[in-house]
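Hi there, hope your week has been kind to you so far. For a while now I've been wondering how a particular protein folds. I'm sending you its amino acid sequence along with the backbone structure tokens. Could you read through the record and tell me how the tokens relate to the sequence? Take your time with it, there's no hurry, and the full record follows here.
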Amino acid sequence: MLKEFTCIICPNGCGISADIEIKEGGDSLIRSIEGALCPRGEIYVKQELIDPRRNIATSVLVKGGILPLASVRLTKPIPKDRIFDAMEEIKKCCLKAPVTAGTVLVENILGYDADVIVTKSVPAGKLLK
């Protein structure tokens, strides 16, 4: 079976074709990978077939700050099928200003070795309009 991928690792966005065989039990055997302009493309396709992972960048509410939201992200990608579960946990969070970039908001989200960290400092004060 031929599967098509667009690599998201670097700006090249290579169109990659992988010839795979699905074995009993659902495991995939990769026969060939073509179209990757760099080694990272092949690594990306293998990861996508074995254990697809994604990162999250979003925002959380801030009370008492000059901005109503602070941006946050994961420190490492988590399994793709757990993204919505992670977002539910992040939505429960609310910060109190002042907020400092780099602050860990949630440690080991969903039991994975990935933290949710603040990426935008928000000083305390009157909300900017």
